[in-house]
Amino acid sequence: MKRLLIIGKRGGILHWYEDALLAAGNDAAGFSLTHHNMLARLAGHAMGKNHARVRRMIRDGLAQAIRQHQPELILIVDLFYLEPAINQLLIESGIATAQWIGDRFEDRLARNTGIKDFYFTDTGLIPLAERIGLSGRYLPLAATLPERALPAWETRSNEILFIGAPSAGRVALIEQIRHPLLVIGPGWPTLKNPEARIINHRISIKKTRRLYAQHKFVLNIMNESNVVNGLPQRCFDATMHGACLLMNSTPDTSLNFEKGKEIFIFRDPSDIAQITHDDTAASIIATRGREKSERAHTFRMRIAQIIAGPGNNVAEHSPS
After folding, report:
1. CA dist 124 to 137, 182, 206, 263, Å?
2. For 14, which DSSP code?
């Protein structure tokens, strides 16, 4: 595997930077744009992350990381609009570069001229990139293999689990589900559903994954504000940890899972009631979803696809 320098945000909600760095192997190095060392972190808190001195510290730190690790590929994970000095540093390095993006972006992404290859977790972002003169390829998110053996199906909670922030569509759907639910995330209003139990704060990705492994059913509803065609966040984490994933269909769904066999697609709350009352069918879907995720949706596989480069068909679609 090539020597990688992975640039990202330490401590992000999705743990994307940390998971990609772990998957890249022992020869990879990481550089966090948010706080690559304690001095830069303290300076950012004291002066603000946009202060000229803080930006210079980040640029100099990245230059040092490039000199020290001599990477063959620099990969930026997540949406970052590069500071001009950092963009120029990447250009002058002469090293192959790529950026893997999972959110809607502004036109100023076109200023990231130091990036050679763009990958998007949502096929709907590709035409948006083309509109501003960028070419990109589809590469969905992924999951990390569980650290320990998963609990048996029959020992898991029958309560539907939803973890995420509220949106109008999410609130409307959850209020209609007639099955015990556990809803976790910041900012949730009081729901008109006596079967919904709310824990109104953010939890770590480590605890999220642990809860996925403890529940039979994980509900994942598209957030209409940041998804075009893509899968909701953490879909692969839910299936990787052995839950039966309940989600509304998006155009990218069939590129990653076989509907009805590896995940359960619902059209309305009555569909959810149907699968939660068929324990055998739900268990089979959960098993198939986990097997598919282990076979085709790990971060190690995604990193290999990026290393293979855009000329390789493996980067065009998620593996089947």
Report:
1. 11, 31, 29, 21
2. T
C-alpha 92/C-alpha 16 separation (Å) is 27
Helices 52-69 & 84-93 angle (0-180, nearest 10): 20
Does 169 lie in the same domain as 102?
no
Tell me, yes or no, whether 147 lies in a domain: no
For residue 208, what is the DSSP state?
H
pTM (2 d.p.)? 0.90
Helices (H) and strands (E) in the chain, counts: 11, 12
Tens digit of each residue's pLDDT (9 = 90 or more) over 159-187: 999 999 999 999 999 999 999 999 999 99
Strands (E), the chain: 4-8, 29-32, 73-77, 96-101, 117-120, 136-138, 160-163, 181-184, 196-199, 217-220, 244-247, 264-265
CATH code of 287's domain:
3.40.50.2000
